[in-house]
Amino acid sequence: VLTDNQMPGVVSGLDVIRRVTELRPGLPVVLVSGALAPEDLEALRAVRRGRTLTKPYTADQLARAVREVLSGA
Prior knowledge:
This protein is α/β, with parallel strands linked by helices. It contains three helices and three strands; from the N terminus they run E-H-E-H-E-H. 44% of the residues lie in helices and 18% in strands.
C-alpha cells in the first residue's frame, strides 16, 4: 500500500494503514508525508513492513522505498 498521510476528509494515510493491516497483517506499506509527528512515526513502527517517504521525493526514492517494503528490508 502506498498512501499519503494528508488526504481530504476524515481519514489520514495512517488510518488507512491501520485499517488495511488489521485485515492483512504484514502487508507492506509506504506512508508519504511532508512531515510526520513523533507519534505517527511510532504508530508506523508497529506495522512491521512499514516505511515513510518524505516529500518531495524522486522516482528513484519511491522505487527504493517500494523495493524495501516488498523485500522486508
